[in-house]
Amino acid sequence: MNSPLPPSAAKAPGDTSEVELYEVRQKIYPRAVTGLFAGWRWSTVWLTQLVFYGLPWLTWNDRPAVLFALNERRFYLFGIVLYPQDFIYLTGLLVVAALSLFLFTAVAGRLWCGYACPQTVYTEIFMWIERRIEGDRPKRIRLDREPMSARKFAVKSTKHALWLGVAVWTGITFVGFFTPIRTLLGEIASASLGSWETFWVVFYGFATYGNAGFMREQVCKYMCPYARFQSAMFDRDTLIITYDGDRGEPRGPRSKKADPKGLGLGDCVNCGLCVEVCPTGIDIRKGLQYECIGCAACVDACDKVMDRMGYARGLIRYDTENGLANKWNRSQLTRRVVRPRVLVYTGVLLAITVALFTHLALRTPLKVDIIRDRGSLGREVENGEIENVYRLQFINSAETGKRYRVTVSGIDTIRISSESEVSVEGAGTRMVPVRVRVDAGKGTPGTNRIEFAIEAVDDKRVSVHEASTFYIPR
Length: 474
Prior knowledge:
Blueprint: H1 36-54, E1 59-60, E2 63-64, E3 66-69, E4 74-77, E5 80-82, H2 87-108, H3 111-116, H4 118-134, H5 137-145, H6 150-175, H7 181-189, H8 195-215, H9 217-223, H10 226-229, E6 240-243, H11 245-248, H12 260-263, H13 273-276, H14 297-309, E7 316-319, H15 321-326, H16 330-337, H17 340-362, E8 366-372, E9 379-380, E10 386-396, E11 402-409, E12 415-416, E13 421-424, E14 429-438, E15 446-456, E16 459-472
Helix pairs in contact: 1-4, 2-17, 4-6, 4-8, 6-8
């Protein structure tokens, strides 16, 4: 059934005036807030940014500790060197990240969005700069309403210059994970930056500047898909930010000394601070809304008001739908939060994480790809011997040079007839042709299964075995 048009949209017969179908965005001016959850949020800001901005500067074995060298097709993670053949580890990390998101959401809603999402983190940074330059919410509102003047232009210019500085440095740091950061800065200083690096510095910097400086809550409300499918991960025992309507209603202002029960009022004084501090501009008192990113700024603001009024904290708090309906205490909530769904997510996540990192720690720092010479399947050489030619690609994941010995088995008298020892530089690759022979009359005509064994000369523990085939002409 179609909903009726609002009164403002009703038209008289013959009226040809235009009707706005979309509401014009109202700029949101979040008020600064302090408290427990604000402290947690800033802790994650510091932690994530120390990791992001600091990692490109760390060195390991005279190279960047973390570097995704796409041109070399190598990924350096401290003492680990990965190649495209190690794509399984990236897949594992993505699975771990997805399961972590499911687990955190099932336990306490949008924890990622409220505390660690890059959009939240950079919006916090940009708003901190904005408050330092323009002042808190009332001053920013007044400034925007003023006509343009020399003072307003100077204030706005300073703010945007600092925003651009953070955005550009963020873009440079991002590219520093793919091009060594010191090399990158040298290229920028000498105006010799490549087109690839230039594009990504500008693109990532512009995205940071636009998303954190201007779009802000619009990214969370309209662009991020998580806001739309989060409800599929919630249930009635998920901790979410809730307003206790039974305790707070009916709301209304009163003096600190007044008895709310005598006035027929709940604990909510209708100050509106929960709305003013919200980065997405919603009123949590209207119930759970998909725009809520779970930052808990409204909890901090409301708790301070409750403290000033002498009321108990928790009018707005983390609670569950079942807990709110049944008036459960914290111990009851905790028992229901640790439920089968959460235990399954936790068990699967731990199992995959342990398996992934165990496999990564125990992996052999050698890979060998064997490719048959397509020019000749098999040929007869001197003394009636049959020879097949292979190309062995050695991938040495260790950062020290290695020498490997190649042997072959599977057919009586089968042997390597070319050089059987190969040297490969640290974190390097090498393609080597290998000739394999068998005596006349050995094996069966057609395809014979064989196995190559490659072993490090100085470390017997580093070895791989690869199957292949040996062709004997009929």
